[in-house]
Amino acid sequence: MRARPTFLRSSAALAGGWLLLVAAFGLYSAESHRQALELDVSESGRALQRAVSQRVAQHDAHLTSLSALGLAQAQPSEDFDLVAKSILRFYPRIVAIDLIRLTPGEGASVVSSATSADGATASPEEVSKAVAALTAGKAVYGADARPGHYRLMKRMNDTMAVSLDIDGARLVEDEELPRWALLRLATGEGTLLELGAAQPAGSGFLARTIRFEAPIASATQPLRLSLQRHVTLAALLPPLPLALFAAISLAGLVLVRSLLRHRQEAALAREAAEAAARREALRQHETKLAHALRINSMGEMASGIAHELTQPLTALLSQSQAGRRIAAAAGLKDTPIDGVLAANVLQAKRAADILVRLRAYVGKSAPEAGVHDLSRHVADIVALSRIDLDRRGIALDVDLPEAPALARVDPVEIEQVIHNLIRNAADAVGEAGRTDGRVRVALTPDAAGYAIHVRDNGAGIAPDILPRLFEPFFSGKPDGMGLGLSLCESIVERFDGSISAENAAAGGAVFTVRLPAADGIEEREEAAE
């Protein structure tokens, strides 16, 4: 029998195995959520990087446009102011546009300035200082005093420069920034601005921060974008899925344990049943061996008894025959004394034949059967049995057919069977204590031969005894040996017949001996040849 897994054998082991299973699921779930969150932060960061890179690229394009417009005018004109104000209106992250005149030796001055509500005019000196080292057409990044702002300045020629004041917070629109994110824009000098969700100062169990960093693609604006997300234990390990898994896994383990336990109990019960069957088979085998030993012993004893009885029977037969001769010499032939001696001679010869057949049966060399009239032999044994039944006050009825009933049997053995059945019927009537005891013997044609019925009006056969009537050494009588019916069955079966017993509907028992007709036997033998 296959053993159950160790962790299912006890409740404590089951609980430990369940906790390990839940812990393994928790680690797997936490790792899966961590990877998913890292992917989410990475994808959001790259999307913001692309958007910001496109917008700072627009700043360079505006500088180029404004520079070209400023150089085309000898003096500042309304066209420059209109374009600058239009840029401020459509690009709100640009909050101020200044056109600066650079006069060597005289300082710098603001020629034109367009500002929004959040903007401020640039300092000409700072712009002049920032672009002093630049060649014409080059731009430079510059810091701004206001938090989150920076300036982008370009030298147009030796005498002119343009400056853009940019609000870095507006480089990212509100709907583009995830609600969980903290965004940082930084330069080499430090953090320019921070936007988004505030991050906790400390970290709890299994909490961590996921970061994404990438530079903004711009040669003039050296910005670096950083996006980070603080992940708590609840985000890495959602309580509801963990609780559902814990409940389902516990129910599954309990169910598996119950099924395995039932399977083990069934296997134990099956093994116990098989062991009981083996013990019963062994007991039956021992019983059969004991029966065989008893049969062998009875055979040896019967052979010895037959041998010992042969001599007194021979003497009885010789003395009876001598008595008849003496009676005949004295003129007493056909007198009652002669009849008694004749009966002794007849019964001595019959007893001798029985002993011969008994010794032949024990020696497994039974005499060969011949074709005989069953009616005559049934009548003979009924006549022999009637004296004993009349003495016991039991009526004996006989019903025989007029035509001969020919069957292939041994006459002495078939008479022995009928005599045994009549004696058993008389014993059953006597045990029932009936005053109207009756035994009836009938010989009737049967489907394939003839049937001999021996019926009595006794108490019948007990239901627990009926199936075992023909077993050797089994007897329903207190002093019975259990060999009579077994021997009858052996004799009848040797003549290709059968014997059965049943309780009659009107009471009492009926024993039936069925024998094939002699012509039917001859036909089967011819067909076999």
Automatic annotation (TrEMBL):
Keywords: Kinase, Membrane, Transferase, Transmembrane, Transmembrane helix. The chain crosses the membrane at residues 233-256. It catalyses: ATP + protein L-histidine = ADP + protein N-phospho-L-histidine. The keyword Transmembrane applies. SUPFAM superfamilies: ATPase domain of HSP90 chaperone/DNA topoisomerase II/histidine kinase (SSF55874). Its EC number is 2.7.13.3. InterPro entries: HATPase_C_sf, HATPase_dom, His_kinase_dom, Sig_transdc_His_kin-like_C. Residues 304-519 form the Histidine kinase domain. It holds the Pfam family HATPase_c. Gene3D superfamilies: 1.10.287.130, Histidine kinase-like ATPase, C-terminal domain. The keyword Transmembrane applies. It is an enzyme of class 2 (transferase). One of its GO terms (molecular function) is kinase activity. This is histidine kinase.
